[in-house]
Write a structure and sequence with these properties.
This protein has helices at 4-18, 45-55, 147-152, 170-177, 184-188, 198-208, 222-241, and strands spanning 23-28, 60-66, 69-74, 79-83, 88-94, 100-104, 119-125, 128-134, 140-144, 282-286, 289-293. The protein is an alpha+beta fold and 299 residues long. Strands 1-7-8-5-6 form a 5-stranded antiparallel sheet, covered by helices on one side. Strands 2-3-4-9 form a 4-stranded antiparallel sheet. One of its GO terms (biological process) is base-excision repair. Its cofactor is Zn(2+).
């Protein structure tokens, strides 16, 4: 699944590509993707009709992001909420034959054929076509007729602060960890604490701040919390700047791949030598997620 830096770069790329364009026609091949966001999603023909009727003729006004969600703002206050989940992908093809622009998870067939068997939603725009492809179909695109209806769903009500927001500061992190039960890795990946940090950046920030991932969150001192806070800010800023990590060949909308994977110190490096102490990194499982750390450097 893409993490915050990857989704932010995709947001920027989509903004440069589709904002200002009118939606001339919408085709929905898999109604369940526009029906709901649950694991079990029965297809709703009513939701399909509402989506098509509500978006056709509208313009893309902006592309925003909250955590790993994309929020398409349309004219007349309409909204489309998108989550790529494990294998979602956007492909934009210009009418001027300037080539295809791909963002999201790699789907080999999309390099050769569009639409294809993995194409589930198609937006025909004024200057090109935007395809939503998804091999596993866990992603979703939900339509809301106005901002009030979107806000009423309270999608982000349980989310914590964005790690690069002004509100996310040392005081917030200290208070969030105070008396918090659970292992540090699990706490960092809890969307109620830090939104969008994800598996990769949780491992990297814990390594940089020298905190073991299985430590109890309530045992973290203020000094350790300060080091963790500084690590989160530095790593997330850097990862966003260079386009994310592109693990599992995740691609940005301009077809490039993020460069931060080259700077990983621990993620995906179990058994390799620690860059600090030159001893082997170890792997454990925390909440079903692979976790890499240095048992000597992290305390």
């Amino acid at each position: 699944m893409p993490e915050l830096p990857e989704v932010e770069n995709l947001r920027q790329g989509l903004g440069r590509t589709i904002v200002g364009q009118k939606i001339r026609r919408v085709e929905i091949r898999k109604p369940k993707l526009v029906s709901s966001k649950g694991t079990q999603r029965p297809a709703s023909l009513q939701k399909k009709r509402e989506f098509i009727r509500g978006t056709t003729g509208e313009k893309f006004i902006s592309v925003e992001r909250r955590a790993k969600n994309l929020i398409f703002k349309l004219s007349h206050g309409k909204v489309i909420l998108v989550h790529l989940k494990m294998s979602g992908q956007f492909v934009y093809m210009s009418n001027s034959n300037n080539g295809r622009v791909i963002g999201g998870h790699p789907i080999e067939l999309s390099e050769k054929e569009l639409p294809n068997k993995h194409t589930h939603v198609i937006f025909e725009l004024e200057k090109g076509t935007l395809y939503y492809n998804d091999t596993r179909m866990f992603g979703y695109l939900l339509f809301y007729p106005n901002t009030e209806a979107f806000l009423a769903e309270n999608h982000f009500g349980l989310y914590g602060l964005e790690p690069l927001s002004k509100e996310f500061n040392l005081k917030y992190l200290v208070n969030a960890l105070k008396n918090k039960k659970g292992k540090m890795k699990a706490v960092l990946m809890n969307q109620k604490i830090v939104t969008g940090l994800g598996n990769i950046y949780a491992d990297e920030t814990l390594f940089e701040s020298k905190i073991r991932p299985e430590r109890n969150a309530s045992s973290i001192s203020r000094l350790e919390a300060k080091k963790l806070y500084q690590a989160i800010i530095r790593i997330m800023q850097r990862a966003t700047k260079v386009g994310g990590s592109s693990v599992a060949a995740y691609r940005l909308l301009d077809t490039t791949r993020g460069n931060y994977a080259r700077e990983h110190k621990v993620y995906g490096k179990a058994g390799q030598m620690c860059v600090n102490c030159h001893k082997p990194l170890e792997k454990i499982i925390i909440q079903s997620r692979t976790t890499i750390f240095c048992p000597r450097c992290q305390k």
